[in-house]
Amino acid sequence: xxxxASLPPKGLPPRPPDKGSFPLDHFRECSDVKAEYMExxxxxxxxxxxxxxxxxxxxxxxxxxxxxxxxxxxxxGFHEVEAANKAPLPEASESDMHQRKKAGFIAGVxxx
Length: 112
Description:
Shape: extended
């Protein structure tokens, strides 16, 4: 008699990825850009945000060589606004912080 323990459970059928599959870079057309990106990751402690431009360059390379579907980079999470272009926030002086502590404040509530 067969045991039901050996049969896989019935569940939802597998679903393909949203963007579909794309071919591998067999001819290594974008390997130079990929190598730069990997080196950047190593130099920046595996923090992808520091290497975002290189990541975008790699995706552009793949799109130009028809290794993936053409897509706007903004739809892939690459936005024109860079962190470097943002104006730095003014730092509060010690006297300002002392006054806030003395008067009492709640984070997130605007000052009067």
